[in-house]
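Data availability (excerpt). The following record was deposited with the supplementary files.
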Amino acid sequence: MPRTVEEILQHADELAARFESYEPNPADELDTGAVALLRAAVAERSQAERHLIDAIRKAREAGMPWSAIGTFVGTSGEAARQRYANKVA
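Predicted structure:
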């Protein structure tokens, strides 16, 4: 890691030279359509997780036991409690 002004400037010159001479290799590039799909899926999953946490919070406020919540989310009640208790408190 450059530390002196001279080293920083030299490093900047080296990076600029690499940038200017860069020739992309299509085989190394990521498919933009696949990247877009992955980003959208991650955003949807995040939104779904927030929605699930809200639903679990309301279920707990209504007195639903962890065992019933676990059944709905596809785990045991204990697993549901371990995963969500600190998020709904």
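Summary of structural features: The mean pLDDT is 91.
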